[in-house]
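Repro:
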Amino acid sequence: MLNSIKGRILLWLFLSIAILFIAFGYALHIKLHYVVDDSLDKMLHANLQLVKGLVHSHDSVTISCEAEEFMKGDYVLPDSGHYYKVFVDGKLKTASYSLVDSSFDLTPGTPVNHNTKLNEWNYVTVGPDGESLRVIRHEYMFMDKLITLVVAEDMTANIQLINRLTSYIWVVMPAMIILIGMISWIIAEVSLRPLQQFSNTLENISHKNLEERIEEKGQARELRSLAGTFNSLLARLHQAFEAEKNLLGNAAHELKTPLAVIKAECDIALMKTRPAEEHAESIDQIRTVSASMLEQINGLLTLARLDSGMLDASSFQLLPLNSCVADAVAMAAPLAKRKNILISSSLDEIEIMVRGDKEMLTEALLNLVENAVKYNHPGGFVAVELHQRKGVAEVTVSDTGIGVSDEDKERIFDRFYRSAAARNSDGTGLGLSIAKAVMQAHDGTISAQAQPSGGSKFTLTLPLAAQ
């Protein structure tokens, strides 16, 4: 239960409500005590003033108290719980008829408070009949004599009232906690129902129907953002699955032809005894086709490593891009010489520093330069330039070859894609895909455009390293 969101919501709601009700019940209990005690103290104070008003002198010599003539009712009933005493200089002057034993001391007990301004003391004590009493004692000077007034009231009824109310609170409170717990369970069930529906929708999506999406408009406001995130994730997964499926299909198609050529050459070579020259030609053909296959497989491995996140920015090092461009041009030089292509390089004199992987950047540049050579005309020209522009390093590779059509520009960086003009030339169809993946890993860009005078121009940009 506690492993679910619903269980945790119910637990926290139950604990919070229980603590809140217990605190409320305790505060109410304290408040009841305060209100009842305060009411009793006010009544005692009023009775005290009444008794005080009955203390007087007729001849300015003798102090008399006519309380017994005016304090009637409960004050004349024995052990009624309503008592008073009047002392003059510590000697008992008079006491209520209710106090059967007039010598009974009302003041010993637990002090509650003392009002210094009014010179009054409040006590809680036990009465002559064993009842709980609330007592007020007041002292003042009258005709140079110390007058002490003591008035007491029975607290039994008040205590019973407080106990009944407190018992009612402690009986009702658990029922309220259980009721609110049930309501909380219903609220949690209804509130989490959209999440359950959301989960059910996700559960129905598999690799077979990744094109499906979660409806965002019908979701609760809190789930709309989550639905959008999942839709973006599904779109990326669908794209990745499609790319993988296309990659496998294209790889199988591309490797099928060279494997068929190898098998055919081997079959022919094994059919009958042939001159050594013909065997050498077959072996050379097999070697050429195998080299093409190896190139394709290496390209696929490179793309697989790039797709798996092999290039991590945390492992990039500070390096001069000039050396990567120079190495790529040097490695493409033998191919250019065989095809009678002139390569010209123009690099800034200052070193242009970037952060990246030198080997992968060099491979990406080499693919561009080799493509410019492969798809060029005999006696053609390739120009490689490196400049620093507006906070980025820019490498351009221009050629006088077959060019790039507008239709090809949309798909030229797709894996295994080869334009109609390039299908009869050597190549794997992976070079530009690798270059694009390397640029993306370095937060760079790559673009292609046709030259007005013929040929094509590829442009790479990389962010400059922070100085």
